[in-house]
Amino acid sequence: MYSKAPASTKSSTRYIPKNPDRILDPPDIVDDYYLNLIDWSPNNILAVALNTSVYLWNAGTGAIEKLLSLEGSDFVCSLSWIQEGDCLAVGTSMGVIQLWDCSERRRLRIMGGHSASVTSLSWNSYILSSGSASGRIIHHDVRQRDHRVAVLSSHTQEVCGLKWSPDGRYLASGGNDNMLYIWPVVAGQAFSQPQPLHSLR
């Protein structure tokens, strides 16, 4: 009734296309390796920063909409979607973060705190972490009027990337100082200046 012969293993080959599915031509995208100018939303919308403006491309419908334009010499340096909705964080060269409700196409608030360009952003529920060209990282509680809850100051040069772990317990930060730091989550409401748990060069 049962065969003792070993079960056959079915080999599967992953297909990788040679050509892209779509080509989007962003004419005014800033040529700067350290900036984070695109981000996908959980609702399959791609946000793209083109110098002073942010555009939204709906991958399902192909529709393109302009969300915002900055004034003067300010330009967009970083973008990050919250994972629980339609809120997009926009970091600028003037050290400011704008929060936008993209479903309503309206700005929710403006948050300061950085003295240099906001080059990277990462969400952890209602905590938004921002890294700047000065090397400083700030945790913002977007629910609070006094939004700054922590400042991380170990990087000596520009923060190039930020990413929270899926469980929300750790933040990884990479900088132009060739350092990678792992930070613990900040507990409580009091302002703090935590130290990294690990560092890699």
TrEMBL record:
Keywords: Cell cycle, Cell division, Mitosis, Repeat, WD repeat. PROSITE patterns: WD_REPEATS_2 (PS50082), WD_REPEATS_REGION (PS50294). WD repeats lie at residues 152-193. InterPro entries: Cdc20/Fizzy, WD40/YVTN_repeat-like_dom_sf, WD40_CDC20-Fz, WD40_repeat_dom_sf, WD40_rpt. One of its GO terms (cellular component) is anaphase-promoting complex. This is Cell division cycle protein 20-like protein. The lineage of its organism: Eukaryota, Metazoa, Ecdysozoa, Arthropoda, Hexapoda. Belongs to the WD repeat CDC20/Fizzy family. One of its GO terms (biological process) is anaphase-promoting complex-dependent catabolic process. Gene3D superfamilies: YVTN repeat-like/Quinoprotein amine dehydrogenase. One of its GO terms (molecular function) is anaphase-promoting complex binding. Residues 24-185 form the CDC20/Fizzy WD40 domain.
